[in-house]
Structure formats: structure tokens, C-alpha cells
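Task: encode each sequence below as C-alpha cells.

Item 1
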Amino acid sequence: MEPLALLDGLEIKLRQLSAAADRQRADYERVIAENQQLKRELDRQTGIVSSLKDKLERSHLVTDEANEGSGPSVSATDDQRATIEFCIREIDRCLDWLQRN
């Protein structure tokens, strides 16, 4: 093979490699940006979960204090507690999904 043809072939391969490297770099930057966005969302969701857990604990304290004076009728508070715990489980499930992705 002629040296000129070899050089042309090498030049084409180098350009292809350069284009592939550019695509990889762009993909990397996109993934980094998406990762940062997901971390911000995870932090936000973690704050929400902490806030909800604090509210749940406060509501437990309030309902426990109210129940001490009111007697055995606590079905409404049990329903609220079940609803809040369900919401917390759903939020935890969403946070787990965000961490995996």
C-alpha cells in the first residue's frame, strides 16, 4: 500500500476517534448534570421526609396527650396515623428509586 493511502486511512480513523471522544465527553457532561439534578432532588425529598417524620412524631405526642384525657375513642387518629405512615413509606420508596437512578 502506498504511504499516502496509509496516511489518508490514518487521518480518517483519527477523525472518527476524535468524533467518538467528543460524543463520549458530551454524554459524560450530560450524565454529570443529570446526577447533580438528581442529588438536589434527593436532598429536597430527604428534607421533606424529615419534616414529615417530625410532624408525625409531634402528632403522636399530641394525640397521646389527648388520648390520656379522652378515653378509648382514637379511631380517627389511627386513620390519620396510618395515612401519614403510608405517605412516608411512599416517599421512602421514591427516594430509594431516585438513589438507584
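Item 2
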Amino acid sequence: MMTSFTQEEMDRAVSLFHIFARAFKSISEHSIRDSKEHGFNPTEFSVLELLYKKGPQKIQQIGSRLLLVSGNVTYVIDKLERNGYIYREQDPRDKRSVYAKLTEKGKNYLDEIYPIHAMRMARAFSGLSKEEQDQLMHLLKKAGIHSQHLIFR
């Protein structure tokens, strides 16, 4: 069912989208530069960061957590495993589930580089006060959840 909006509401929404997209691109450049500086593409770095911050993850769930296509996840996991940063481990209780885990090499490397990444991200958001950052997180989560619900209507 279509909801009707005023022209002003639609124009504001389009402007908001463009401002959001430009801000996302600008801030993302910090993370992209970081990943490349450390020899990873942004997707590889995102997988490593997820495992570093959240611990072992089911390979089947990594894609949805990082908004990746499953074929990309397999390729990235294979490459990171070949380079010794992660390994796969089958869940003993569910033979269909396979977890990706950081190796000691992967953990040690992220212990070294993650503080630099976190500092650069803090610098990218330093134009906002702590309260503004908290408010932005809240508003973006709220907008994302609402928008996600609309997709399935």
C-alpha cells in the first residue's frame, strides 16, 4: 500500500538520502584507506574486524552481518585462510555449521593494527560531540529498522 507524502516531504527525503550517501562515502574512505594500507581489501578487513570484535562466527552468517553476497564471503574466507589469518572449524553439535575463527597470526596482527583503525575512525567522527554521535547512532538504527520493515510490506 502506497502512503502519500507532500512534495516537501519527498524533497526532504531525497536531500537526506544524498547527504547521507556523501557522508557515508567520505567516512568510509578512512576505513578503505586503512584496509589497503594493511594489505587487505575492504571486505577482507571487515571480516577480520568482525571476527576480532565479535569472536568466531558461522560462515553462513558473516555475509548477512556484513551485507555481503555468499559467493563473496566464500572467496574472502578462502583467501584469508590461505594467508593464515583465519581457519574454519566445524561445529561438533551441528555438522552443517562451520565457524570462521582468527588464527594466532590473525589475532596478533589485529592486536597491532586495530587500535590504529579505531583511532582513525574516532578522528573521522570527531566533528561530532559524544552526544551527537550517540544521537546519530540511535537515529540511523531507527531509520534502518523502519526502512527494513518496509521492504517486506
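Check on item 2: Helices lie at 7-37, 42-54, 59-66, 70-82, 104-124, 130-151. The first strand starts at residue 57 and ends at 58.
End of task.
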